[in-house]
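REVIEWER CHECKLIST
Item 1: Sequence provided? yes
Item 2: Single chain? yes
Item 3: Sequence as submitted:
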Amino acid sequence: MREPAFWWREPGLMSALLAPLGALYGAIAARRMRRSGQRVRATVVCIGNLTLGGAGKTPSAIATARLLRDAGAKPAFLTRGYGGRLAGPVSVAPDHTAADVGDEPLLLARVAPTVVAHDRIAGAAAAIAGGFDTIVMDDGFQNPSLEKNLSVLVIDGRRGIGNGRVFPAGPLRAPLAAQLDRAHALLVIGEPGWSARSVISAVRRGPASIVVTGRLVPDPAAVAALAQAPVLAFAGIADPEKFFATLRDAGIAVAATRRFADHHHFDVAEAKDLIAQAEQSRLTLVTTEKDLARMTGDPALAELAARVKTLPVAVEFDNAGALRDILESLFF
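Item 4: Structure as written out by the authors:
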C-alpha cells in the first residue's frame, strides 16, 4: 500500500473524516495489546514500530542483535515474513527468496539465524529448539501472543508519528498512550522534528523514561563507488524519500528518482523501463537492499538485479551504552 500524504501533515479534513474509524480501530488494537502473552524459555526482545512502516526497524533489530551477541547471548531473529508465501515456522536458508519468506528476513539472516513464522509462539519454540537463548523480534510489538522481556519502539526522527492519529486517520498502529505504556525504551533514528520531540517528551514523563538516539550510516565503500557518477534512485519502501535523502547527504548525485509502494514487487515492464531510463540518461541505477532482495531469484528481473547497486546502511547509536546496559540487565 502507498501511504497517504496527509498522515504526515498537521491534522486536516481527511484525517478528521476518518477519525471515527481510527478511534474504533485504536480501541480494538489497545484492547488486544492488553492480553497476556505466553512466556517462553528464552529472553524476548521486541523491536517494534509505533507507526506503519518506514522507521528503520530492521537495521535497528540487526544492531540490537549484535549488541546482544557482544553481551554473550545467542540471539536468533523471529519475524512474520511479510510478503512471503511460507507460513512457517521455517529457518531462513540460503536458497530462500523473498517470494518464500519476504525481503526483511533475507537481510536479517545475514547477521543471525532467522525464523519466519506467522504463529509467533511456534516460531519462538523453533528458535529455542535450535539452541538460541534470546529471540529478537523484528516487529510484533502490537501482537500480544508472546510475553516480551524488553520492547524497544523505533521512530523516524524526521517523520515522527505524523499527525498523531490512529490508522486509517493517521499512521499510528494503536493509540500512542497504549503503546508507550507497554514499551521499555524509545529509539529515535535521525534528528527529531516536532512530531518526534512530542513523543520523546511523552516517554520521559511516562514509565519508560529511556530514550536512545541514533542515525542511519551508509557503508563507506558503497558511497565511494556511487559517488563516481550521477544515479537514478528508486525504492519500494514505506518512506522512499528517506532513502533519497540518505544518498544526497552522502554526497551522491541523485539525478532522478522513482517511488514505488512499500514491498512493491517489480514487474518486467517496470524493470525494462528503469533500465532504459538509466541508459538514456547515462545514470547508475541504485536502490535499497530490501528492494534488491525482492528481485533476487526472480528470472524475469535478473537483468535489473545484475545492473542495480545498493547503498547498505547500519544504525549507529549516539548513546549505545544506555541500550547496552538495558540489554545486559536481562542476563546479569
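Item 5: Key structural point noted by reviewer: The chain has a mean pLDDT of 92.
Item 6: Recommendation: ____
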